[in-house]
Amino acid sequence: MTAQPDVFTPATLGPVTLRNRIIKAATFEASTPNALVTDDLITYHRLPAAGGVGMTTVAYLAVSPGGRTEGKQIYWRREAMPGLRRLTDAIHAEGAAISAQIGHAGPVANAKSNRAKAHAPVRFFNPLSMRFAKHATRDDIDDIVEAHANAARMAIDAGFDAVEIHLGHNYFASSFLSPLINRRTDEFGGSLENRAKVARGTVLAVRRAVEKAGTPIAVTAKLNMADGVRGGISTEESLQTAKWLEEDGGLDAIELTAGSSLVNPMYLFRGDVPIKQFAGAFKPPLRWGIRMTGTKFLREYPYREAYLLRDAKLFRAELKMPLILLGGITNRDTMDLAMAEGFDFVAMGRALLAEPDLINRIRADGAARSVCNHCNQCMATIYSHTHCVVTGSPSPVSSGI
User: In what residue span(s) does the NADH:flavin oxidoreductase/NADH oxidase N-terminal domain sit (predicted)?
Assistant: First the structure.
């Protein structure tokens, strides 16, 4: 019987060796007012790197202008490269690795603030932008897949150690996987095999780009286990998709996630539901709409440690490839549980937002506990400057925020 790995020992992620098995998950930083790297963004990731994580993940680096969830997000282009290199150098100086989350938001994209067309499997109305996403043609799909490959090439040039392909939360690839959203009748609709073509094609395009570049970086993906919505992606279908991705051989690991940014985001973010604060982040009439109907969009799910573990164990039982456990990882006991259940890495979000040095604290004292109380008021701050309202961390620096 294989001994349970220590979460604080070095581990390989594809061709990359991380100093431990703890990854800072991608959580949108709201630190790029001009869609370029700022000192604030660097600080946002440098703090958890100095605080002990093995790798930090930059979110969300869109593969095209129209693939952003809002217009201030970075998208891959020549002008962004010097700042991205400055960012990767800063993280490496702290002894950590850095991953770039690459993706296209699809129906979640804000066409109004992006000033660019959004694309979806079918024509789709986004209430946050008050705009319709365009039915993606075969040429649109090919362009978006190629944009992922180009993003991976640029990530290598910018010094990233890994890319995380966004296949979750009903973004572009995930929206094709969803039987609720994808009502197409062509080769990309109907059967799961057809609906999975975009996700599988995107991963293989990225893998080919990385291999051709000749610089060894890891390729991972964030995949929904379930949308938490009736008629959406189910655990059974997602498991089959994961098996296909494993067979295709394009990934070094999968980070297992859940929830729909369009319909049910709290399925991922368990705990309190800050409807008042969330509504306050928007202008009328959207603010009024959220206050009146917020409980239908922001449903409440009680918080518990390792809350995605039950579903994730189904994937662990069927897959041989490395898996990253996300959701309710805040202390050494839960990290050890993840290792005991056969997961290769753990990913942390809110707890590291509250305390970027939490990993060093846990390493020094296994009984250390996070101060995060899962109030989720940080969710509402992603529209201004993402931070923990309890601790105030991370504080903005002089970057125009």
Answer: 7-247
**How wide is the angle at C-alpha 62 spanned by C-alphas 219 and 220, nearest 5°?**
15
pLDDT in tens, 104-128: 999 999 888 899 989 999 998 877 6
Beginning with the edge strand found earlier in the chain, give each strand of the sheet holding 119-120 in spatial order. 119-120, 131-135, 124-126
Q: Comparing 273 with 280, which gets the higher pLDDT?
A: 273
What average pLDDT does the chain have?
A: 92
Instruction: State the CATH number of the domain containing residue 113.
Output: 3.20.20.70
> In 3-state terms, what secondary structure has residue 18?
strand
Q: Can you state the angle between helices 81-93 and 39-50, rounded to 10 degrees?
A: 20
Amino acid at 135: H
Calculate the alpha carbon distances from 200 to 42, 67, 102, 176 in Å: 32, 18, 15, 11
Q: Is the pLDDT of residue 398 over 70?
A: no
Reported as a pLDDT band with limits 50, 70 and 90, residue 401 is very low
Residues 6+ apart with CB under 8 A from 302: 270, 271
Report the candidate in 207, 182, 171 with the shortest Cα–Cα distance to residue 67: 171
Of 262, 26, 296, which is closest to residue 129 (Cα–Cα)? 262
Contact 111, 117 (CB under 8 A): yes
Phi, psi dihedral angles at 131 (to 5 degrees): -135, 155
Structure tokens at 183: 């009502």
Is the previous residue joined to 394 through a cis bond, with omega within 30 degrees of 0?
yes
Model confidence, pTM: 0.94
Which residues form the domain of 338? Answer: 11-263+305-373
- The mean pLDDT value for 166-171 works out to 96
pLDDT at 211: 97
Q: Report the first-to-last Cα separation within the chain, whole angstroms.
A: 52
Active site residues: 171
Looking at the structure of the chain, the number of domains it has is 1
Judge whether 269 lies within some domain: no
